Amino acid sequence: MLFLRASLFNFSFYGLTIVACILCVPGLFLGEKGTYRIIRAYLRMVYMAEKYILGLDYEVRGLENLPPDGAFIVAAKHQSPYETLKLHYLFNDPAIVLKKELLNIPIWGKFLSRIKPIAIDRSQKKEAMKQVIDGAARVKEQGRPIIIFPQGTRVYPWQTSAEKPYKAGAMRIQSETDMDIVPLAMNTGLYWARKGWMKYPGKVIFEFLPPLKRQTDISTGLKQLEKTLEETTTALQNEAMTSYPYLQKMFDKRKAKHQKHVITAQQKTETKIS
């Protein structure tokens, strides 16, 4: 039954995405409002498919921790494509820090540029940080929230910060702009993996945590952000696996498979070195 629901949803999701890409073409001739109408219509249809085909919904906690107005930084866990489909639900006109290569995708990249992200070239680390700082200053003047994934990539639910370290980008933005950082924890990776066909019913939790004020020492602030996000994310994942036992089963299975793959890769590397 779970496989059937996941399959039906996937076919619906890919179909909706194809339609959205087609609509991007005339969307290039629309103004900003027209662009956002297409985006929100697409996201709304995907949400309906998630809810009524897959049986997956979401809950938002800690909204009282968001600043009532003005720009701020959201430092979020990144486990799944799921959260990227909810950013325009959770925030009004967010500026997302993303890799510049996405803007080079034919048609879709041009359309994506309409939502005014902060695009960076990750192959040039020093230049990338300057791009982030300059973009953040622009976004602050616009009064828009900035969304950044401090680990820089999607991580599996079982991966620790030792495997996928936190990067200081959010703290450097805060140091330059003096904006508050609002940590955003979630358990999306349990329901919709970063890779794979299967997706599971249940309830995703997004939890906004109390804002982190600017620290004199960037490394101290980064450790505080990491501790806050990791502890809350673990708690949300445990809550989900208690409520939906099949998630615990799949978590253990996928974790074991991943660890086996890591060990095999390490053995191959050691063999080459020797």
Task: Give the arrangement of secondary structure elements.
Layout: H1 2-27, H2 32-54, E1 56-61, E2 73-76, H3 81-84, H4 87-90, E3 95-99, H5 108-113, E4 118-120, H6 125-142, E5 146-148, H7 169-177, E6 181-186, H8 188-191, E7 202-208, H9 218-243, H10 245-273
Helix pairs in contact: 1-2, 6-7, 7-9, 9-10
| Number of DSSP helical runs | 10
Kindly identify the CATH topology: Glycerol-3-phosphate (1)-acyltransferase
Strand composition percent: 5-15%
User: What's the shape?
Assistant: globular
Overall tally of domains? 1
Largest sheet: 7 strands, mixed
Strand elements, count: 7
CATH architectural designation? 3-Layer(aba) Sandwich
Strand numbers in spatial order across the main sheet: 1-7-6-2-5-3-4
**How far from one another are the termini?**
48 Å
Low-confidence residue ranges: none
Structural class: alpha/beta
Assembly type of the chains comes to single chain
Q: Averaged pLDDT, please?
A: 91
Mind telling me the CATH superfamily name? Glycerol-3-phosphate (1)-acyltransferase
> Helical amount among residues, as a percent range?
40-55%
Textual characterization of the structure:
By secondary structure, the chain is α/β, with parallel strands linked by helices. It has one domain (59-260): 3-Layer(aba) Sandwich (Glycerol-3-phosphate (1)-acyltransferase), CATH 3.40.1130. The protein has helices spanning 2-27, 32-54, 81-84, 87-90, 108-113, 125-142, 169-177, 188-191, 218-243, 245-273; strands at residues 56-61, 73-76, 95-99, 118-120, 146-148, 181-186, 202-208. The chain has a seven-stranded mixed beta sheet. Strand 3 (95-99), helix 5 and strand 4 form a beta-alpha-beta unit. Helix 1 packs antiparallel against helix 2. The longest helix has 29 residues, at 245-273. The protein is globular. The relative contact order is 0.14.
